[in-house]
Recover the amino acids of this structure.
């Protein structure tokens, strides 16, 4: 899992055209701690408990299985692009960001749409 | 409730004599009267106690205290002439004359009395009813206190361009008000509290005046922009006998035609649309009737251009290939001509707005894009409430009803479309059809995320509901914004009653009552009505569950019970994050926990069959199947589902 996360971090960091220095030195995330932090810090309000996201003006993006790199993830928390509320370091230290990122990255893929009959009628 | 001047002299003398006797008896006998009832005498009661002792004696002269027909009978004739099927009300003394005339003289039919536990429910039922039936519901309400209750729903109807026909009671003549409560319930200008969101109101001084204003009010309400109206039914006019020989006449209701846009402006719009590289149509409160949607399809298929349906109504079928609502921003950013149809917030549609510590905005459309508006909103605007939204600096504003102007616009566009253009347009349309297909596939895949989550995801909730209704002649009566618009993304909506928009003013309390009103209208058409009902909204007007049970209005309420005011929770989250204070207290004032509310038990207490609460998504399908059977048996049902926030 760690290898996967790291590879995603690298890919995303390169994709977003940002320095990989922070990513390389970044704390390792703990998905179990991350899950608790995800729920306690209101991430689920907009993104759902399974990271499924919500539509419309106030719903958050789906973040499960999006392959978002750690640095891009952290940047969005610290300096949100759109309407997401900011999470500053004093309220959410980098270690917690890494934990939440690890949790989000650990979310299993959803069932295949073809396996759900009522989505195929 | 006669005024003295209306009382014949003999009768007046008799009345005064009797009053004098009664008054003298009242002074002499209050203690006896109290002793008879056995109740303690209230201290400092400003209202004289009735002289009950006088009831045991024979008065020297007998009063005539009955009448055959009163003004309220004629008022009911006026109301019946307008074709109302229903009149919704919480009973109130200020319209007791109308109430009695409606149920007895009027036979409680056309309109039939709908018993409501709150005036907000009465008006909101009218709101939903209109959007299905296309004609207003009549509402009776107490002057002052009843109208105060009704104002929230009236404001929602106003913002949503829905006509509701309100009649309130009031007693204007000070001589005719009983001491105490009737003074509290009377006003010099009772409509004033709601006038900012009424298109018209009147306080008729005679029965003929009432007749003319009754028809005038209906005509004004139903002429686009369609909006609420109010009439005052004075207590004396209701309760006094109709004077002998009075020649009363109810004017006929004319056929109402909607105003069309200026022909020259329409022709220019057609030219711009037909010669544009990337024309885009936006429709908001455009489709007033079933014809509106068909006409928009015809225009879109003539141009093969994207249509963005902002969900004020169901303007374009959700699965139409040119429905590009999920790509609104992308299409608008490329557009060279944009036509907005009956927009209530044009500016907010063509600009992005960011709610951060510094609120900023920027246009979505590119510089030089031609912006055109077509709508009836400019025909009637008021100043105080700001529902008219930010000013959209369009290049051409065509004032007229969008739907009525559409045939002229389509014909004008067709004159610009030769064979070459038609072929190019079709090629353009195929590209959009592919996009639409991809969007639908993506929506189905997106719905799989959180499929087995508990609380139930809104995607799963809507997929399960769709599975139950899709083979019925169904009607969705509730808004979809808090459901992340899953119904538009997953369901096939192609009839106007498949979706009827939101509450207009976004005052919560709309959904439950409007859904019952919509279900009432759907009942005679044999349609299956479903409402995905938010918990906070239901709590505002929960008495409507009893109304649904009492009047046997079949409707499947499926609770979107996220156990809180989730929108507000997210707002508090935004503030707490901005102030760097953490979220451990964000639930205070925003959530409905400790204890959780058992909506199934509440519904059962109101006489409605209920299932739940359901937290495991695997239980949802079977529960909805059971609920569906109840609705098909002609009864309302509530399924409580504990859901994710959005």
């Amino acid at each position: 899992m760690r290898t996967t996360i790291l590879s995603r971090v690298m890919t995303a960091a390169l994709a977003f055209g940002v320095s990989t220095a922070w990513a390389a030195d970044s704390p390792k995330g703990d998905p179990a701690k991350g899950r608790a932090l995800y729920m306690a810090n209101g991430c689920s309000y907009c993104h759902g408990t399974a990271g499924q996201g919500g539509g419309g003006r106030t719903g958050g993006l789906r973040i499960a299985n999006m392959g978002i790199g750690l640095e891009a993830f952290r940047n969005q928390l610290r300096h949100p692009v759109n309407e997401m509320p900011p999470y500053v370091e004093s309220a959410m230290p980098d270690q917690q960001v890494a934990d939440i990122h690890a949790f989000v990255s650990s979310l299993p893929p959803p069932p295949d749409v073809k396996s759900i009959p009522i989505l195929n009628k | 409730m006669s005024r003295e001047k209306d009382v014949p002299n003999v009768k007046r003398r008799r009345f005064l004599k009797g009053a004098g006797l009664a008054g003298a008896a009242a002074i002499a006998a209050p203690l006896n009267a109290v002793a008879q009832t056995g109740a303690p005498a209230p201290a400092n009661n400003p209202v004289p106690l009735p002289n009950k002792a006088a009831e045991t004696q024979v008065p020297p002269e007998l009063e005539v205290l009955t009448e055959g027909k009163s003004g309220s009978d004629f008022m009911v004739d006026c109301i019946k002439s307008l074709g109302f099927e229903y009149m919704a009300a919480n009973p109130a003394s200020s319209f007791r004359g109308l109430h009695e005339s409606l149920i007895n003289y009027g036979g409680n039919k056309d309109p039939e009395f709908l018993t409501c536990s709150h005036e907000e429910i009465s008006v909101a039922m009218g709101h939903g009813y209109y959007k299905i039936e296309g004609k207003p519901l009549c509402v009776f309400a107490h002057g002052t206190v009843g109208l105060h209750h009704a104002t929230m729903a009236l404001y929602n109807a106003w913002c949503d361009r829905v006509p509701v026909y309100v009649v309130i009671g009031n007693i204007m003549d000070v001589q005719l008000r009983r001491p105490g409560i009737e003074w509290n319930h009377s006003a010099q200008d009772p409509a004033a509290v709601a006038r900012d969101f009424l298109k018209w109101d009147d306080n008729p001084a005679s029965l003929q005046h009432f007749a003319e204003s009754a028809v005038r009010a209906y005509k004004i309400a139903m002429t686009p922009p369609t909006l609420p109206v109010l009439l005052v039914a004075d207590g004396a006019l209701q309760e006094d006998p109709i004077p002998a020989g009075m020649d009363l006449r109810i004017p006929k209701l004319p056929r109402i035609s909607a105003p069309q846009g200026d022909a020259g402006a329409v022709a220019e719009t057609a030219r711009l649309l037909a010669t544009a590289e990337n024309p885009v149509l936006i429709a908001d409160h455009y489709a007033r009737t079933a014809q509106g949607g068909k006409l928009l399809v015809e225009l879109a298929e003539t141009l093969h251009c994207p249509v963005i349906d902002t969900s004020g109504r169901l303007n374009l079928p959700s699965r139409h290939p040119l429905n590009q609502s999920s790509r609104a921003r992308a299409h608008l950013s490329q557009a060279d001509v944009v036509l907005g149809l009956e927009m209530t917030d044009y500016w907010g549609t063509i600009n992005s707005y960011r709610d951060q510590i510094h609120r900023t905005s920027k246009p979505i459309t590119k510089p030089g894009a031609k912006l055109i508006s077509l709508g009836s909103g400019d025909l009637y605007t008021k100043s105080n409430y700001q529902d008219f939204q930010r000013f959209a600096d369009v290049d051409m504003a065509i004032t007229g009803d969008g739907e009525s102007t559409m045939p002229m616009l389509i014909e004008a566009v067709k004159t610009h479309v030769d064979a070459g253009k038609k072929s190019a347009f079709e090629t353009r349309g195929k590209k959009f059809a592919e996009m639409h297909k991809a969007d639908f596939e993506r929506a189905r895949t997106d719905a799989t995320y959180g499929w087995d989550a508990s609380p139930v995801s809104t995607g799963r909730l809507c997929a399960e509901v769709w599975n139950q209704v899709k083979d019925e002649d169904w009607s969705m009566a509730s808004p979809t914004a808090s459901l992340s618009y899953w119904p538009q993304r997953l369901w096939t909506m192609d009839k106007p009653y498949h979706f009827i928009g939101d509450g207009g003013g976004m005052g919560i309390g709309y959904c439950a009552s409007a859904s019952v009103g919509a279900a009432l209208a759907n009942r005679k058409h044999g349609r299956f009505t479903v409402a995905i009902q938010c918990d906070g909204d239901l709590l505002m007007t929960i008495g409507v569950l009893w109304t649904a049970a009492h009047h046997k209005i079949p409707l499947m309420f499926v609770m979107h019970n996220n156990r809180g005011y989730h929108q507000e929770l997210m707002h508090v989250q935004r503030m707490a994050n901005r102030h760097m204070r953490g979220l451990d207290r964000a639930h205070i004032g925003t959530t409905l926990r400790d204890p959780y509310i058992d909506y199934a038990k509440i519904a059962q207490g109101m006489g409605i069959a209920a299932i739940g609460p359901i937290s495991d998504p695997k239980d949802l399908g079977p529960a909805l199947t059971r609920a569906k059977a109840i609705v098909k048996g002609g009864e309302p049902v509530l399924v409580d589902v504990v859901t994710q926030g959005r």
Notes: Chain B touches chain A through 47 residues (CB under 8 Å). DSSP finds 23 helices and 18 strands in chain B.
